[in-house]
Amino acid sequence: MTGLVWFFNLPYPMIRRPVAQTAPILLLPSYLEMDRNYREAIANVESATQLIERATSSVDIDLGEQKVRAAQENLDNLPVWFLGYEPQFYCSWFSCSWKFTFDEFQTARADVGRMEAKAFQEKNAMMQLQRAEASLQKAKEAYQQALTPTEKQKAIATWQKSLDELTQLPDATLARKMAKTKLENYQRDFQPISDLVVDGDRNNTIIKVANQFASQAVSSCQKPPHTVLEWQKCQEMWQQALARLETISADDPGYFDAQTLLATYQTNLNNIEIRKPTEAEAIENLESAIVKTEQLRSFLSRNPASVERDYIISQLQAIIRQLKKVQPGTTAYSQAQELLDSAQKKLKQLG
Question: Is the pLDDT of residue 23 over 60?
Fold first, then answer.
């Protein structure tokens, strides 16, 4: 008899419908099973909704996902093809508070699908949160252990990327809510580092500008001799470079690099400040010697017979002393050497 009841309750219309018309009581076991699966499906969907929609931890999401799978299994066990008319006999004996229609079944199926998608989104968001937090912590440690500016910049970039990922978590997820409460602390920790990055970028720009002035100065000042005006321009460019480097204070990023350049630039400026007055003095001595030479020639042309020999010698010696003051590496040096050679020959002739 038990085997026969089992056979009659198989989910095949050709077997069930004749039994339902003549001895519907024999189908009671399948009705009871269908009732149980349906009620459990509804309960599991409601539990999943509560756990997932109002989750306070990843444990709630995992439990909600389990309820979704259980509800899906319950719905899979419902023979959809006879919903709406086969349970009528069962419901006539037992007061059914549920409609048990195909539409209601579809609604339950849709709820399961929605909760399944929601659980998937929540788990993905939670994994994204965990990855971002792990990456952030790793970047923070890397920054603290960094020994070079390059290593620090790399750690800062990873740190910033992790913070960006935390702000990009899907809305209306537990992970987004959890990240929101932590993000303020994370950003507070990062703010001083971010300020250093801004200051570092500003100082890098200052150093680049200083280097541009220095490059122009080197280009203009190489291959001397140069005129006083040219030395003045070189001096001004070195001063511009130094002025920019001096704006970087001791507690700023890039201070050591700035000080290294500043020492080099100051040495170059000092050299210019020596070369410029040397050039000015050379020009002054050359011009003075030329004037004295012209005056001596003019005097000799007017009084060739009455000029004393000692006077000429003293004038030539004065011119020679003046010309010897002209330093090598000046624009006046070459001409001064020619005049010096000529004056010395004249003096030798008189001696």
Answer: no
Q: What are the pLDDT digits (tens) for 52-77?
A: 888 888 888 889 889 999 988 888 88
Specify if 155 maps to a domain.
no
Domain that holds residue 283: 220-350
- Give pLDDT tens digits for 36-51: 777 888 888 888 888 8
Structure tokens belonging to residue 12: 């095949």
The DSSP call for residue 77 is T
Query: 342 and 230 in one domain?
Result: yes
Q: Which among 83, 112, 130 is the end of a domain?
A: 130
Instruction: Using the predicted structure, report yes or no on whether residue 338 has a pLDDT greater than 70.
Output: yes
Query: What number of CA atoms fall less than 13 Å from residue 54's CA on the CB side?
Result: 6
Report d(CA 50, CA 54) in Å as an integer: 6
DSSP string over 168-211: TSPTTSHHHHHHHHHHHHHHHHHHHHHHHHHHHHHHHHHHHHHH
Give the H/E segment covering residue 232: helix 228-245
Indicate the number of domains in the chain: 2
Residues 126 and 6 in one domain: yes
pLDDT of residue 245: 95
- The DSSP H or E segment spanning 159 is helix 149-167
- Tell me which residue of 249, 274, 276, 281 sits closest to 262, measured CA to CA: 249
Q: Pick from 80, 101, 130: which residue ends a domain? A: 130
Contact at 8 Å (CB) between 5 and 26? yes
Rounded Cα distance between 89 and 81, Å, is 16
